[in-house]
Amino acid sequence: MRHDTRFRRAILVVSAAATALALTACSSGAASQASDTASQASDTASSGGVTNQLVIGSMLWNASVPFYSNFIVGQQEEADKLGVKLVMVDGKGDLGAEVAGIQQLITQKVDAILVTASDATGIAPAVEQAVKAGIPVFAVNNRVDDAAGAVTFIGADDYEFGKQQAKLLVDSVGETANVAYLVGTLGTSAQLLRQKGFEEVLAAHPGIVLVATQSDNWDAAKSLTVVQDWLNKYPKGSLDAIVGQGPEAANAAKYASDRGRTDIKFILGDYPVEVRNGIIDGYILGTVDQDPRPQGVRSVEAAVQWLTGQRDKVVQPNEYLPLPIVTKKNVADTPAAWGE
């Protein structure tokens, strides 16, 4: 997966997994290296030459997911603009590392923590620890359990996202169709809420049948493998559409088109350049555009507002950002949300 070199240069990404190794001292070499990493992060959080400079921690469940490249850039650019220090922790897709990362930020006594978690329930105890330590926590992009005590959620209304995808599907296939459904990482708030909204709309259209539902784990290679299996299982004329919760099936849609499976309409989620190109070229019908960069920007801005006596400017309990639909009709006027 390609990473945006801008955020590599701009921020320190701390490996929570390495920190966990240091804490458990699995081996002297690994522990020493992890301790050095944690020490460097602590210095970053406390340095900068500005007296009483606010320090914002950001725990991201997996920084290697391409969606988050512009999200991270947005967070860092807003931090630079507002004159605050941003300390990033990469959970690398592991819940234990995410928890360790939040605990690391608590130990560093950051002023606020932005949490983008893989598991709303699994991350809740760590969020509660931060709140009890007097550190306000903001859920960003992915939710955390309401009971954990986060200030607010900033991101997409994933329930509405799923409903929008379903409405686009109904508009394109009518009242009778066989549909396969690609969902993201199981248990994430995005996967659960998008599926809930999607299926609720389809409940009013019983002629549209979900013949298959499978997770691609927000991974393009796995998405392609799943779609290839479906193409073999469902011959031409037996499958009308494939709906993906994310953009990962863009290459799979092209694969299907290149092999003559133009009978299948592809509706995806999010709007990177590969989805935009697919809409322009006609092998993707449309998408729901969730732009990650504004979520990153707004999360840092909201944390600073909360910490500087501007709490009335922070919408609670949810601050939803726009989710426009992009199809052939408006793709020319709608730049991609990320990618080149």
UniProtKB/TrEMBL annotation:
Domain Periplasmic binding protein: 57-310
Classification via SUPFAM superfamilies: Periplasmic binding protein-like I (SSF53822)
Cellular component aspect of the GO annotation: cell envelope
Range of residues in the leader sequence: 1-30
Pfam family, one: Peripla_BP_4
Molecular-function GO term, any one: carbohydrate binding
Chief place of localization: other
Record-linked PANTHER family: D-ALLOSE-BINDING PERIPLASMIC PROTEIN-RELATED
Keyword tags: Signal, Sugar transport, Transport
Family: Belongs to the bacterial solute-binding protein 2 family.
Name recorded for this polypeptide: ABC-type sugar transport system substrate-binding protein
Subcellular location per the Swiss-Prot or TrEMBL entry: Cell envelope
